[in-house]
Specification:
With 92 residues, the chain is mainly β. It contains one helix and three strands; from the N terminus they run βββα. It starts with 36 loop residues before the first strand and ends in a 17-residue tail after the last helix. Bound molecules: zinc ion.
């Protein structure tokens, strides 16, 4: 279609992108960063204050993270007592 921005065959427009790929080979380093959303787990009690539920993390509908603490203890945020607030994005 004559796109002037298309890279010419056999040439790489930028070789700097490939270096970052190695970082993605270690998904287990910080599982929290790969959580889609938080869900309440009522089968466990917070190890600090005994409150239920504790915080669990879901990724692609699978449980990938289970905290031993409730929302307020995990995030030091009293408002986190309500699981409905767990997936709200904090104001930037
Ligand atoms: Zn707690």
């Amino acid at each position: 279609m004559g796109d002037p921005n298309a890279p010419a065959p056999g040439r790489t427009p930028s070789g700097a992108v490939t270096a970052r790929r190695e970082m993605r080979d270690h998904p287990a380093m910080d599982p929290i960063t790969s959580i889609d959303r938080y869900v309440p787990d009522y089968t466990h009690a917070c190890e600090v204050c005994g409150t239920t539920p504790v915080v669990a993390g879901m990724k692609a509908e699978r449980l990938v993270y289970l905290a031993t603490m409730c929302g307020p203890c995990l995030w030091s945020e009293p408002k986190a007592l309500d699981p409905a607030t767990w997936n709200e994005q904090p104001p930037a």
